[in-house]
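Appendix B. Extra example for self-study. Work through it before the problem class; the solution is given directly after the inputs so you can check yourself.
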Amino acid sequence: MITEALLLSAILFVIGTFGVLVRRNAIIIFLAIELQLNAVNVALVAFSNLHGIDGQIFVFFVMTVAAAEAAVGLAIIISIFRHYETVDVNNFNFLKW
Amino acid sequence: MSPLIQGDGQPFGGGEYEPLVPGLILLLPLLGFLANGILALVHARASANAVREGGELDLGGRADRPSTHTWPTWIGPGVMGGAFFLTLVNFAGMFDAQLHEAVVISYWTWMATGTFAVEAAIQLDQLSMIMMMVVTGVGFLIHVFSVGYMRDDPGYPRYFAYLNLFVFFMLVLVMGASYPLMFVGWEGVGLCSYLLIGFWFGDREKSDAGKKAFIVNRIGDFGFLVAMFLLFVEFGTLDFVPIFEEAEALVYGGGLVTAITLFFFLGAAGKSAQMPLYVWLPDAMAGPTPVSALIHAATMVTAGVYLVARSSVLFALSPIGSATVACVGAITALFAATIALKQNDIKKVLAYSTVSQLGYMFVAVGVGAYAAGIFHLMTHAFFKALLFLGSGAVIHAMHEAYHQTHRQADPQDMRNMGGLRAHMPITWATMWIATLAIAGIWPFAGFFSKDEIIWQIAAFGGAEAAAFPILYTMVWVIALAAAVLTAFYMTRLMLMTFHGTNRTGEKESGYLNEAPATMWVPLAILAPLSLFGGWINVPEALQTSWAGLSGALPTTEWLHHWLEPITEQAHHIQEVNLGELGHTAPFGGGEVLWAFISTSAALLVVLAAVRVVGSEEIRDAASDESRLSGFGKLLLNKYYVDEIYDRFIVNTVRRKAEFFWKVVDVGIIDRFLNALGWVTKGVGWGVSMFQTGAVNTYAFVLTVGALIVLGLSVLT
Amino acid sequence: MTVLLETIGYSNWILHALVWLPVLGVAVVLGTEERKAKTVAFWCSVIVLGLSLGLWWAFDPTISGFQMESTATWIEAWGVNYSLGIDGISLFMVMLTTFSTSLAILGSFNYIRVRERAFYALMLLLEAGVVGVFVATDVFLFYVFFEITLIPMYFIVGVWGGERRIYAAIKFFLYTAFGSLLMLVGILYLFYQTKNILGFPSFAYGDFLGISLTEVEQLWLFAAFALAFSIKVPVFPLHTWLPDAHVEAPTPGSVILAAVLLKMGTYGFVRFLLPLFPLAAQHPVIVATMLMLGLIGIIYTALVAAVQPDAKKLVAYTSVAHMGFVVLGVFALNVNGLQGGLIVMISHGLSTGALFLLLGMLYERRHTRTIEEFGGIARVAPWFATAFVITALASIGVPGTSGFIGEFLALLGTFESHPVIAIFATLGVIFAAYYMLPMVQSVFFNELETPENREVKDLTGREITILAPLCALMIWIGWNPTPFLDRMELSVRAVIERVESAASTPQAFGETTGVYQPEEAD
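Solution. Structure tokens for the complete assembly:
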């Protein structure tokens, strides 16, 4: 049972990572990050079966943070779009030095 | 505060000595300083406002002076009169009691650490009493003189504040019961000297002179400090009484005592303007003339002699130290006397004369004749103060004359004087007395004190186990030569100033007048002192001869006996180590014969000078600077010592300082630091290149990194 | 007086009050209007000063260790306590701090024209920090206060400073912070050693004293601490931040910097280096190095000072020279030297603080500090000149002023242990006259030529209020330093005895203490 759950989690995580790495659209990247988070959630739930309730509690934390992140992140993306009329991350490299 | 009297003041005859409020002797000048200082500050505020508005404060006529100018007239000399009176009373008490041990009165603990303690204590003994008499007595007269001399000066209250402060510190110097306290007075008088030399501080030259005096004096103070440290390490205390009690435990002629005496002498040379530190004293003439009389002739500059006499036990223990003192004194005496031959500024002549006479005093204390040194110090205080005050009266008159006719000329230049005898007879007469005294003509004061010194050199050099007999023969010859030169340059000064025809100017000569009473009365008091002052210490050998009018002169070596409690320990050390003193001069002859030779030589020189300098042509030729050549020019330019010092010392130090600042501090240390900063910044900048700003690069690196960590953890 | 203080339980709360009242003052100042800030801040500091004066009577000079101690747990897990105490060494540093803060605040009324509220709040914060440094008996607490002082000073220089203020502020901050970080490492090492030996975590100074260290450990720790404090003092060649900071800092900043911040360094020498690492402190190489650096500081910086065209920079360099005397006195390792060093610290605080105040007043009038531009000021501002001359004389150690007592004792102590170095250091008295008098002359004497100088106003009532107590103290200490020396004597003696006993009976410090045989020094 645990093996399958972890396998699912791993697959989801790899997909998410791949999405973050190769896609250029900020919203897609954002969705991919959400996918990674949820992959972790799956793993946490799976492990809570073995180690007790802590993992499930932690899932709620992750979901809360993810929700907050989504709110802030989407707001940033929208405001970037308003300024530059694009959400292609290759165009944004002004966060340096 | 009840004074704690240490030492039982045990008399060996007569009554018991009860010091009468000796603290008040110190306190009075201090109070005078405070009162005058406050007046000076109030007055300065008013005159500053006037200056800011572009003018000078109007002092008004003599009658309607502001109160800040009338009070110092009473306070300044008043406190001095009080101090002098108290000193006299105490002197009388000590005289009656024939005190044998010093009376030490402690007021409070000045500083005390765990291992070192100094009391704020005064020491009353024969030596400090003589010095107190000179300081307060001559000081009082000079204060009175200043009332007339400084009357129209806008800084009048400030002047008296400084002068009172000076007397306070001078009294601390001579009354202090320990070396540190003496040092307080020592630097304190130096400070007042600095303030008074630069009294007219608006003049750059004058305030330069003050600064120079202070800095050169500090070179001496360095020696004083080091000597104190050495003493402390050896004795664990710096109070006079215990040090001198235990001093004999030191090795005679040992390295330690020699070092102590040499460092002390460095201090003395600074304060008393001896070679090679004499250069500040001639410049110090920039101060008001009464200041030159008080500080730079009668009292402060003799502090070095007092120091050596006070430390007589230490100096007696060190033949090398004593010989150094004597030799430096002799060389200075001669060197300064030669410079005085060619100076045209009346105060400069007197300044070099002072340096020369101080040299004499050092010769005296260097040959163990401490009483003779103090004797000459005292007579010199009388006649040199008189000479300076007399020259002050002359300058005052000259200044007044030029002031009346609005002519810009140097009132101190003797080439502008001549024939003043007719205009100021009292000054003329009193100054001649002083001149004969300094020249060493019998029976004036200087004869007895100078003759005593010259004889003591011979006696010391001729002692059974004398350390360096040939050296002392040379010192003796030099002392004689300097005496002859003294007679010459002083006669020259008198002739150029008072005799011949007047060169002040036709219009000006009408305004030349005798000084007011406040100025000539002090002269008139000092004149008899210069005449008879030597009679208190007529040597035994002379007393019964012609020089003592076959025993008619009143005393026999009174000062010598008076100071015996101070000097006997040193004399004892001397006797033990050197044996009996000699009885003949280096080239034969006894004391009486050489006394006759020296006074007649001096008299001959005076007469010769009258002939040489007296004829107008020769004098004019001698004074025309451009026509001088060779040795005369060298003398006129004071052997170029100032220039040499500037070139080799002052400039070198300055260049070093510039080098340290611009090259070492800014160029090396700071550049290194800034370089460190730049390197850090550069590394940071280089590393920051990895921050591309592209989010996917970060994500990629992050992932790769995570994979590597994961891979490593799986593998191990 | 003593009875009165007892009835109000003075010694129980005074140290806390001295640390926290200024902090309260910060809040009050921030809460007032901009233009009233200076008055409020001044009165806050005066209250603190007034309270601190009671220490003079409440302090018991017969106790060598800390007194008025109190402690409260702060971070239990690490053994960090909020514990305060005072002894003969810190007593006068605390009083000097409260005293000079009041005067500095009063002295900045005209100088500080912008962001007054922030400025005065920072001044009070600085006061709290410095007092904290001197009264902390927990090393962690000490470190916190030590670092806290950097922050207000950084802003005071960086915001209200002169043209190169940013450079100076950053230099000051980085330089001193760098040193303190090394010290932090040292403190942590000591902490773990204490924990191992005592079995419980503690940062208490007393516990640090109780542990034994080998000579090698002591040398390393000494190096770390010494570097931190030497930068603060500053000791040659770590001094170059000081002239920059002084020149750029506003007057009150310079005053506090000279009067008390530098003292934190020398205080650290006495409080930490000697008692904690007695073997290292008397290692001949260390002693020789420190004495030589002190000596170089005295001679070298005096010469550098003599050629400065900027009066403020001149005084800044003289600070280094004065602190050289302190270093000599401390590493003379005897009672005279150490007491002398402490008196120099007080005297330097008074005289150099006063010099900076005076130069600040001059700057307010003439808007220049170049010595050449002045001349003849004494004619139009005689009281000003009088105050300046008195201060300058105290600064160069003329007898009858505080400067002499300190330098004399410090040199005397040095001479007892290292005569040759002391003789060379004594040359400093000549150079002191050489740098100070020409400056005094060029500024106050000579011809009154330029019209701007003719316009210079004399001291105002406020300025007299600032300078009169300073001058009075300089002269008072010069004539009667005994009350000061008495109060510090036992504490100083305890430090010296600790150092000496470490050499003679190493076993007293446990088996691990290296047996160290002192070789003939000098």
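Self-check: Chain C has a mean pLDDT of 89. If your reasoning did not lead you there, revisit section 3.
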